[in-house]
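Need residues for this backbone.
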């Protein structure tokens, strides 16, 4: 029987640990505040932002909302970030992505002080990850590592295939797996014989962004499959990049969608926010 990895339970466990930590820090007079910036009203972004603020409230840190108009200029957003960088009461800054097309996402990411970059997107934090130095790690990949570790799944020495090479997931995910001593392959849209590459994987991490693309024909028997994708199908039901029903009989363990990787992203954001209080 395959283990279905319960991301909801594990994320809750992490948030409970953080709540305790935050209460102890409060006793020492250390309090935190996360500034959450959303530009425009994209409904998916609004849901993520709401969940992030709720998680802050749950673990006991303040969140400050900045809801900016769709037409906000790059300079206006940069100016707000500069202000928050200087504000000693704010220890974390998060700009929900994507931003509207008139704003250069890279400029925004680079404007956030690396010390307040709780998303772990700033090149200085990415560079720290590459070099094995301390810094903030991107939340979704960090969440995948916690899912595996807290489910008792070993990483060391395993063949790990990561499908996807985005800055937010694929690249940091590969680096974290390498740090955990996996043998890592990064596959992507130009990879030849993707099926054969995936069939070598003891650990398959899927972040392709295509609903149910990965079926049983991609799976080595007994593999562990982590599904980072999230989509809504025609019936408005959530599904991942993996065809869960097709692969279930072939895997040792798998994350469901919803309730797998998704809740972990916010738990690890909270982890980074608590880290921001003490560094
Ligand atoms: N958009 C999609 N995922 C993320 C994330 O992890 N952080 C931010 N800021 N925006 C996102």
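Answer:
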């Amino acid at each position: 029987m395959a283990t279905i990895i319960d991301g909801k339970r594990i994320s809750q466990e992490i948030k409970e640990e953080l709540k305790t930590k935050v209460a102890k820090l409060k006793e020492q007079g250390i309090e935190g505040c996360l500034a959450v910036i959303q530009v425009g009203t994209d409904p998916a972004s609004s849901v993520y932002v709401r969940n992030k603020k709720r998680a802050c409230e749950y673990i006991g840190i303040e969140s400050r909302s900045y809801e900016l108009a769709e037409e906000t200029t790059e300079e206006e957003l940069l100016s707000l970030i500069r202000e928050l960088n200087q504000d000693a009461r704010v220890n974390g800054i998060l700009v929900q992505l994507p931003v509207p097309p008139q704003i250069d996402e890279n400029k925004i990411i680079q404007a956030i002080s690396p010390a307040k970059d709780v998303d772990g997107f700033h090149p200085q934090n990415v560079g720290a990850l590459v070099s094995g130095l301390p810094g903030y790690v991107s939340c979704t990949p960090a969440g995948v590592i916690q899912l595996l570790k807290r489910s008792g799944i070993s990483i060391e020495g395993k063949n790990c295939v990561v499908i996807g090479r985005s800055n937010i997931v694929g690249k940091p995910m590969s680096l974290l797996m390498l740090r955990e001593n996996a043998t890592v392959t990064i596959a992507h849209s130009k990879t030849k014989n993707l099926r054969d590459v995936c069939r070598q994987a003891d650990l398959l991490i899927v972040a392709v962004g295509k609903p149910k693309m990965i079926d049983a024909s991609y799976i080595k028997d007994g593999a562990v499959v982590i599904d980072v994708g999230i989509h809504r199908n025609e019936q408005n039901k959530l599904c991942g990049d993996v065809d869960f029903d097709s692969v279930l009989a072939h895997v040792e363990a798998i994350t469901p969608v919803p309730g797998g990787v998704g809740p972990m992203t916010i738990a690890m954001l909270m982890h980074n926010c608590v880290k921001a209080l003490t560094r």
